Amino acid sequence: MTGDVQIKCRNIWKIFGDDPKGFLARHNGAPEDDAFGDEGYIGAVRDVSFDVRQGEILIIMGLSGSGKSTLIRCITRLNDPTAGEMEYEGRDLLKASEAELIDIRRHKMGMVFQNFGLLPHRDVLSNVAFPLEVQGVARAKRDARAREMIQLVGLEGREAYFPRQLSGGQQQRVGIARSLAVEPDIWFLDEPFSALDPLIRTEMQDEFIRLQQLLKKTIVFITHDFEEATKLADRIGIMKDGRMVQLATPEEIVLNPADEYVAEFARNAPHARIVSARTIMGPVSEGMAAATVPADAKIGAIAAQVIGSDAPTPVVDEAGAPIGAITRETVSDALFRAR
Ligand SMILES: Nc1ncnc2c1ncn2[C@@H]1O[C@H](COP(=O)(O)OP(=O)(O)OP(=O)(O)O)[C@@H](O)[C@H]1O
């Protein structure tokens, strides 16, 4: 379950060029798309507004150059937005002093990047303990915490290895352990698995799901891979040319894409794993089967049961009350339409 708003972004612009603020002002704060190229500016993030909710996994997707990394860099204040408003747990991030920002970044935010960012001359233990060292945590305490994190990501026994002695997946686990060492409230991951080969990538996705179930962090995660996004996300935000064109659940995106660009991402999406019973059910009917299915169950998980039943299968809410029914025709139709 996800909760309160943790990060609030309103009308964020990030423009690169000689005088971005002047450019924005000349165009009354909302330049037309053509104006950027005409005047030699790059509109990396254009008028983006959204909330990140406590405990959710929000995935940002989009083609290369659509502004995903720049948006995350704005939220973490590694980049100053050209315009807009941003709050972190009600604190105005744009008015925060440099000292406050460093404090938020060091204590509240964890970051994992595609290239792992490990220090080559330090062993695993010292890499994981590094952010705590920067915070000035005493050696015994930081090493103990680092060992805990190393165990959490399954690298116990490799504390004294150097990054070059580890596989790509193991290196990324070190990166993950290090980002968790500071006990962040919110975790930013910029294409953390894209440098990994497909098998290790799947393993790391499963590892990530396991960690999230354990730690229940708020997560903002960038990926190019729609299948990865549907596997991990509570909500997916899709960016195009600096704009957020749709922000919705994987199911909404697959069933109601905002435009052709979004539809293209969702085209080969695995409906069986995304579409739920609630979405395809019909009304409660006479003569339903005794065995029920939960409304939030994905159709892939219930297909065998529903198709094996001669009578319609009742769909029940959290309290167990029937709110609809599914027949083998509805399920096979939904699965068939999927590909
Ligand atoms: N420091 C910079 N100076 C000028 N232009 C920049 C800068 N950083 C990013 N850009 C431009 O802003 C746009 C968005 O870049 P960004 O890296 O955010 O995209 P992205 O969606 O993360 O791409 P990718 O998936 O390739 O990492 C691109 O056109 C990029 O060239």
UniProtKB/TrEMBL annotation:
Q: Any idea which UniProt keywords this protein has?
A: ATP-binding, Nucleotide-binding, Transport
Q: Quickly give the catalysed reaction.
A: a quaternary ammonium(out) + ATP + H2O = a quaternary ammonium(in) + ADP + phosphate + H(+)
Domain (ABC transporter) ranges: 7-266
- Please name the top-level EC class of this enzyme: translocase
Q: Does the keyword Nucleotide-binding apply?
A: yes
- Gene3D superfamilies linked to this entry: P-loop containing nucleotide triphosphate hydrolases
Look up the record and give one Gene Ontology term from the biological process aspect. Answer: response to osmotic stress
The EC number(s) this enzyme carries: 7.6.2.9
Q: Which InterPro entries match?
A: AAA+_ATPase, ABC_osmolyte_uptake_ATP-bind, ABC_transporter-like_ATP-bd, ABC_transporter-like_CS, P-loop_NTPase
Q: Which SUPFAM superfamilies match?
A: P-loop containing nucleoside triphosphate hydrolases
Task: List the Gene Ontology MF annotations in alphabetical order.
Answer: ABC-type quaternary ammonium compound transporting activity; ATP binding; ATP hydrolysis activity
Hey, which family's this protein in?
Belongs to the ABC transporter superfamily.
How is the quaternary structure described?
The complex is probably composed of two ATP-binding proteins (TmoW), two transmembrane proteins (TmoV) and a solute-binding protein (TmoX).
Name of this protein? Trimethylamine N-oxide transport system ATP-binding protein TmoW
Source species taxonomy: Bacteria, Pseudomonadati, Pseudomonadota, Alphaproteobacteria, Rhodobacterales
